[in-house]
Amino acid sequence: MTGSKADLIFVGGKVRTPSHESGFAQAMAVGGGIIAAIGDDDEIRELAGPRTRVVDLRGRLALPAFGDAHVHAISGGLESLRCYMLGLKKRQDCLDTIARYCEALNRGEPSPRTAAAPQDRWVLGSGWSMEAFAGGTPTAADLDTVTGGRPAFLPNRDHHGAWVNTAALRLAGVDKDTPDPADGRIERYPDGSPTGTLHDGAMRLVADYVPPPGQNELTEALLAAQARLHSLGITSIQDACIGDAGELGMPDAFETYRRAAADRLLTCRVTGALWWDRLRGRHQLDTLQARREAADGGGYFRATSVKLMLDGVCETFTAAMGAPYLDGHGHHTDRSGDLFIEPAELAEAVGLLANLGFQLHFHAIGDRAVTAALDTLATIPDGQRAGGRHHIAHLQFVRPADVGRAPGQAPA
After folding, report:
1. Looking at the structure, do residues 240 and 291 belong to the same domain, yes or no?
2. Span 114-123, pLDDT tens digits
3. pLDDT surpasses 80 at 387
4. Would you list the DSSP string of 11-75?
5. Range of the domain at 185
6. What beta strand segments (E) does 73-143 contain?
7. Is the pLDDT of residue 215 over 80?
8. d(CA 318, CA 328)
9. pTM of the predicted protein model
């Protein structure tokens, strides 16, 4: 840093660094947003100017911050401010929590920003676990006992299933004659009527009727999530779903991130994975490019990736598997899950996106989905494949023949 002064220096501590034999140094200087020098206290103090912030570590340890490559910060923050059931292990605990939330709605809480009267507000939240309910699927009948006639939409903790009540099903017109969408499934009673659990794309049937949160509420959610991330030492993230992914119960966070970056509220560096709407196909390319150009957050927000959801999750039999699922008695069923994007359509989308310089972020859990992602990646020219740093998220089931096929991997 010859001829310049540091913006920030840390002294009097243990700075973890591989550049010293012991693995530690006393002090560190930061300039222009990067680590500029590491050394002992006297060396680093010489880089302090009149405007330099000096932090005395008082013997404490300083480590590089963490980055999280797959997080849903704003939707997670929003849910933490609503009816939050994460960590609850019993059906009755979930119902008690919802009942308390509805009592708060009766008092005009916890959504003072909404124009709806308390009795008209939706019961919104998330976080319930499948193991809290028999068969992993809660019912509308249970939810009806605590929601007081309000419509309810409550995604589970992995956002591949939603618990809805009778009022929500009625509002959306979902009944025994409603067909399953190609990318989801309605949990049903033997007579075909919906039980109250919707899987993957079927969530959209009700989610389309849920009133979207306002920008003030989304900003509050971002700040709550950001504070939580920073408390864990996380300073950079990839938000794995930015766009109109209503079927997942997640709001479009693009404008919230863009405004927060412009207003200097965003202190976490965010790479956004723009949602690929599988109903729009190639017609959304102009929108994705426009969003990438608009996401100029001074280095704090960029939207250079695209999220392609190839399948669901195995717990709801929507992950695309190479063999049929077993039922509760260990017998084969006729279900093996479906690819949400057919191979030919996927190949076209990936080719166009890679040619435009987007990074590709595949959701693939079942082995058939992983194979589809790898097959498609193999069609991308080498320069685009390596330069894009494309990746596959989750990979819970991988065929032995696919091990080692990822770009940059040596064959097993």
Report:
1. yes
2. 444 444 589 9
3. no
4. ESSEEE-TTSTTSEESEEEEETTEEEEEE-HHHHHTTEEEEEEEEE-TT-EE-PPEEEEEE-HHH
5. 77-207
6. 83-84, 123-126
7. yes
8. 16
9. 0.80
